[in-house]
Amino acid sequence: MTETEVEKLKLMVVDDEPDNLDLLYRTFWRTFKVYKANDAHEALAILDQVGEMAVIISDQRMPEMNGTELFSRTVERFPDTIRILLTGFTDVEDLVDAINSGQVFKYITKPWKPDQLKALVEQGKDTYRLVKKRTKELRHALRRESLFNAVTTTIRESLDYNSILQKIVVTIGQTFTATSCVLRLVEGDRLTPNQFFYHDPKFSDITLPFDSNPLIEEVLYTQKYQLTQDTHHDNSSHSLVVPFTYQQHLLAVMTLYKWGSENIWQDEDIQMITGVAEQAALALSQAKLYQSLQEKQQQIRVELQVARQIQNNLLRQTLPEIDGVKIQACCYPAREVGGDFFEVFVHPKGDLWLAVGDVSGKGVPAALFMASAISLLRRELSQESPAEPNIVMQNLNYALADDLMSNNYFITLVIATYNKVTKELVYANAGHIYPLLWSHQATLVTQPYYLKERSIPLGILPKWHANPGRFTLAPGDTLLLASDGITEAKVSKKPHLHKDNNGICQQTHSSMLNQEGLWQLIQEEPQPLSLENLLNRIQTDNHVQEDDQTILSLEVL
């Protein structure tokens, strides 16, 4: 039997004529729980005591307060009640008032026909039940939406994964008046030691003895909620175990306990709890993924810091001090690690070797090729009698070409050797920007000498070939090797004036530095030239460094 069949709906009849009142009572007592009122004041008193009626049938003409006024006083408190007005043919104005202010469902003129009235009341009963059903569904939907919003807000405001889990437990426990809640994570269909708790402070002295492990095992197996009651104690308790499942993956289980037999979870509550669990499972999955990504990013950051330190150690930390020359070098990767490198090597026989290289691309792949290149270069330079720079370049290409070509990378590189005795500089260039050479007597109108002997980068072809370039340096000459991260940096030009609607404004343009611009900056730098100060000036116009920047100079004293 359904609930509507077990419990009769309430109906009230209001009439100041006892015969009419008894007739109405006898008509409906079998199908309704009928209340009788002799006038409107008594009807209001019954409503205060009993509450909402499904149907109210009232006579219009009554002393002190008519039926229309009675109905108007019940509209706000009981908007769902079905109101039927009994009236005479002469009460047209009263009918208009009843319809406008009393929300009358129907009116019937006296004398009424019993079958007509029964049919009308039956229609009103069905309407009342439908309204109540829709109202209940709407209230359930609003409650569900409110709970979902609360859970969503809780998740959004949480700072980390554990905080999300704890707040979900508290939110669900408080919303569904649980005595306590326990949320346990699941990994590979097994419970993890991680647990999150909520306990109602009003029941701080109560320890729930119920063993939920069998229910949890059942949920792990079926991925469906389990509900049970423990009646072995003076006061019964209920346990509900709900799975948190996302895309058929069980992420967690929550056990809700309720002490006592009152306010037990209804089907509507259980459906809402399981619905919240589904929403929370989605959030947990995303939060777990986010936490995993954060942990991996942190691990990558730590590893990149170690890689940066290793790469810094590969470069010369202390430049050699050599009589008759001054050497400066700076290398700043755009990321934690980069593909630029330089080398300053003094051979035991006295020759000074210089190199600046640039691996295509940035980041870790470029850094790995950079490490290989600099290691191979040092091996070549450590020979008892190193070959000339172009032969060294050939050997590097032979060792690196296969790996570079298979990974679509290449290396631009300048290698130079300087003999302090003969003052001869011999160099080879594999696709790198031209080295600059100038004398300390150079002025703004004097252009530097570009060492333009050059061939293709390493890793383009299996065999590399080029003739070496030769030049004799004199005291006061400076050789500058740089990577394209220097010459392709953006620098601001001097502002120019222009007019707009608001008056005269200054507008600043930025453009690529290029080698000509680099030479101008060098001329503007105070002497003696400091490469570190020069790079600081270039980087001032570049809030974000887009490429590795390396620069090396050799000044003959």
TrEMBL record:
The modification 4-aspartylphosphate is found at residue 59. It comes from the Bacteria. InterPro entries: Bact_Sigma-Reg, CheY-like_superfamily, GAF, GAF-like_dom_sf, PPM-type-like_dom_sf, PPM-type_phosphatase-like_dom, Sig_transdc_resp-reg_receiver. Keywords: Hydrolase, Kinase, Phosphoprotein, Transferase. Residues 10-125 form the Response regulatory domain. Pfam families: GAF, Response_reg, SpoIIE. One of its GO terms (molecular function) is kinase activity. GO terms for biological process: phosphorelay signal transduction system. SUPFAM superfamilies: CheY-like (SSF52172), GAF domain-like (SSF55781), PP2C-like (SSF81606). PANTHER family: STAGE II SPORULATION PROTEIN E, STAGE II SPORULATION PROTEIN E-RELATED. This is Protein serine phosphatase with GAF(S) sensor(S). The lineage of its organism: Bacteria, Bacillati, Cyanobacteriota, Cyanophyceae, Nostocales.
